[in-house]
Amino acid sequence: MTMEFATRYRGTSRIPPEPGKPYFIEKGEGDRAHLFGDLITVYAGGEQTENTFNFFTCEGPKGDIIPAHLHADTYEVFYVTQGAVRLFVEDTAGEQTERLLTPGDFGFVPKNCPHAYRMERHHTQIVGVAAGPGSTFERFFENLGTPAEEHGLPHRPFVPEPHKFGTVPQKYDVRFLPDQEWRTA
């Protein structure tokens, strides 16, 4: 039996809207959104964890780099379960690193560190966890992207209007860096 909840973000969700309630979600049945060519599925977020962390997956095809951005108050984890992801990161001293992550590899991005990534193989999947003091950013995906009821990757990439990129930093701790240049190979 699967329960459905209404939340302030979605008409229906399998994630209970309040903390302190145990729940279980079958594979792929979290809150889904399409952003660029990817499918993001949220399994736990700020509402369930009292804004201490979130847990989501990101699946996508081989493609373009996801725009450089940073999180002022949020630490982010990349754990690759399928395919390959090239992670670009700049530390707070300005040193840049680029690393190819394959299944079982782990990447950690501290708060205030610019980063970007690119799916390097078709049907790549990342497990993401983000945590920080006082907020989480999982609802960013469906607010910049578009909520998705269906399973699977979008038929066409969903690229937000340019003005939408400026609307998310205050609410979701995601600041895009359009002038970021990667000096790595």
| Biggest pleated-sheet summary | 7 strands, antiparallel
Oligomerization state: single chain
Coarse morphology: globular
- Kindly report the spatial arrangement of strands forming the biggest sheet: 8-5-10-3-2-1-11
C-alpha end-to-end distance: 50 Å
Total DSSP helices: 3
* Estimated share of beta-strand residues: 35-45%
Radius of gyration: 16 Å
Which series of helices and strands comes N to C? EEHEEEEEEEEHEHE
The percentage helix is: under 10%
Q: Count every beta strand, where a strand is a DSSP E run of 2 or more residues.
A: 12
Short structural summary:
The protein is mainly beta and 185 residues long. The protein has helices at residues 46-49, 140-144, 169-172, and strands at residues 31-35, 38-44, 53-60, 66-70, 75-82, 85-90, 96-101, 106-109, 115-119, 124-131, 146-148, 175-176. A hairpin with a 5-residue loop joins β6 (85-90) and β7.
Task: Summarize the structure in words.
- With 185 residues, the protein is mostly beta strands.
- Helices cover 7% and strands 36% of the residues.
- It has three helices and twelve strands.
- It has helices at residues 46-49, 140-144, 169-172, and strands spanning 31-35, 38-44, 53-60, 66-70, 75-82, 85-90, 96-101, 106-109, 115-119, 124-131, 146-148, 175-176.
- It has a seven-stranded antiparallel beta sheet. It has a five-stranded antiparallel beta sheet with strand order 7-6-9-4-12, with no helix packed on it.
- A hairpin with a 2-residue loop joins strand 1 and strand 2 (38-44).
Output the keywords.
mainly beta, seven-stranded antiparallel beta sheet, five-stranded antiparallel beta sheet, 3 helices, globular
